[in-house]
Each structure stands twice: as C-alpha cells, then as structure tokens.
Amino acid sequence: MSQQHDDLLGNIISGNKLLEAQARAWNYSFNYIVSMALKCAVELGVPDAISKSPEQPISLSNLAAAIPLHPSKNDALRRLMRPLAHAGFFTTTSAAFLAGGEEEAEDHYSLTTAGKLLLRGGPQSPFIELFLDASTMTSWGMLSAWFHYSADAVPFKAGHDGASFWECMEKDPAQKKAFYETMVGDSKLVAGVLVSECKEVFEGVESLVDVGGGTGTMAVAIARAFPKVNCTVFDLPHVVAGVMKEEGGGGDDVENLHVVGGSMFEKIPPADAVLLKWILHDWDDERCLKILKCCREAVAGDEKKKKKKNGKVIVIDMVVGNEDVVGNKELCQAQFCYDLLMFATFNGKERDEKEWRSLFMAAGFSGYKIIRSLGPRSLMEAYP
To answer: O-methyltransferase dimerisation domain spans which residues (predicted)?
Structure first.
C-alpha cells in the first residue's frame, strides 16, 4: 500500500468519507453509461411507447410488449430503466399483481417533463442521436492527446483526420438530418417560451431579422404571434430555400414573413430588431465581432442622414455563471458541459458576462441588458 493511500486512511479523512469520495469518482467515471442507456431508450422507442399507452403508468411487461421485446429481455429493460428514472426522465412506481397464485410487484413507468422531450419529433431525441453517435464521440477519447500533441485548433478535427464537424456531417446524411432536426426542435421549444412569456421584447418592434434563422422556425413562430411585426429569415441562400416548404419552417401561409439569403459576416438587412438565437457561441471572438458589427449597422438607422432608430440586437445565448444559474447545479452543469462541447467540436465558446460586455463594447454598442434567464441560456439586448 502506498504512502499516499496510508495518509488517506489516517486521521485526516474518515473511512466513510473516503468511500463516499470513491463513489463520486465512480459516478463521474460511469456517466457515459447513463448517456448510452438514454440513447438506447430513445432508439428502442421507450418514451413514445409510454406516451401512447392507454395504461398510465404503464407496467414493465406491457412496455416491453409495446416496443416490442422478447419477454426474456424484460428484466434487462427494468435494469435499463432504473438509472434513467433516477436521472429524472421517468417516474417509477410499484404495483402488485397475482402470478401463479402469489402476489408479486411490478414496476410501472410514466414520463416526466424531461422524458417528454425525448419523444420522436421532440427537441431532444435528434440531439441524442447526433451527439451520442459513435463517430461524433470519437474525439472525446483523444482529448488529452490533443492537449499534448495536436496542432489542430479544434479537438474534433484531431479525432477525424483533420475534417471539421461540418465536413463530416456533409458526408453523413443521417447526421446532417439529425443536426437540422436538433436545431428545429430547440427553436420550437425556445420560440414557444419567447412568444408566450417574453412578449415585452417585441413591444414597438415593426421589423425583425432572424440572423442564421435556418429554415425559419423561430421567425415563423414570432410572425404568427405578432402579425404586425414584419419578420425576415436571413441565412445562406441554400438554407433559406426551405423556409417556405412544409418540411422546413412551414411559413408559406404567413403574410408577414420574408426570406433573404446572404452572409451574416458581410451585411444584414436593416430592421428594428435583429435576433441571434444560439449563433454567437459557434464562433471565436474575432468572427463574433464581425457578426455583431453587421448587426449593429442593421439596427442603427441611417446615421449619415441623422435618422436613428431605437433599434436593438436580441441575443439568446448562455451567460456562464449568471446570477439566475448560480446555485442551480443542473443549470451550471449544462453550461459547463456545453462550453466544452463548443470548444471541442466547433472552436466556439459559452461566455460569461464580462466576455459578453467586451464583445458588445468592441462591436460599438452603447450598452446592453440581460433581460432574463431561459434555463441555462439568457435573453440579452444590445443597443447601438
């Protein structure tokens, strides 16, 4: 036994505390098992089977039959569900039934709010498919090697023979589909909260440009909720081509919705408000400044003719360590993990308030305000 080990078992640390610490190390070593169990449950269709069942909560045996699984797999399914219920995706209750004249107990399951996000067509199932795919996860196993040896700016490239995430996605149609479904699902979720709980953000706004708006999910929701706001989806030409298609934004029947193709690094259409929903975290500071300067120009009005508008740039992104998140372990963990994801996959970053202030001031804004928290993200406004 090493001297270090002897010291741990000495008077400084009790044996029980030491064993608790070991359990903590186990848990963080095994977190990937919960992730893989979650991926398995989504691929099996467990959340959908629970949701569609007339029996609520659904029994283990009926859940297995609904998937369907061979009865010999029932106990394995029970064991799969146990850590996922502990993680808060399902609730588990036990109910008695008669088997061979004897009373036995069987687990019954229902969906929590987090579990409902896993339904097919929901915001989280394509996210799981995308980021827990074996090819996407390859670079994480090489992270320490990247710190020591790799000259690549992005760890993802080091794990994929120099190819970027975007290049890999173009070669894999399933991954590309999962990515866009992830973005659409998240936008639906955020848009629902935005138009129902943050209506004051759109007061006095007559025109809005959704920069990097993809197939228009956010803009369509805003346009429907606020018919007097002229909304424009602005993205690369080949991306916005899907806005007026049902499989995209579904904006073909929205009169106050428009589409403009272009580059956010060059020029953004003028408007009262510019929306950047989860855009800036993809980019390093230099390219964020280019985007923000274009946004400021779009909302500043015609300064040469002294015609200024009370425009603003609306930013939905994380503010790491903001006061509404501090003390909430779940939200803090989401921020820290997402920051690592952005760094390792895209060379992007999640920023704290000091970093946001620096960017806004460097881009020429006169001020900014954090309006409110949206889970681990925040709703901010920057003023020209």
So the answer is: 26-120
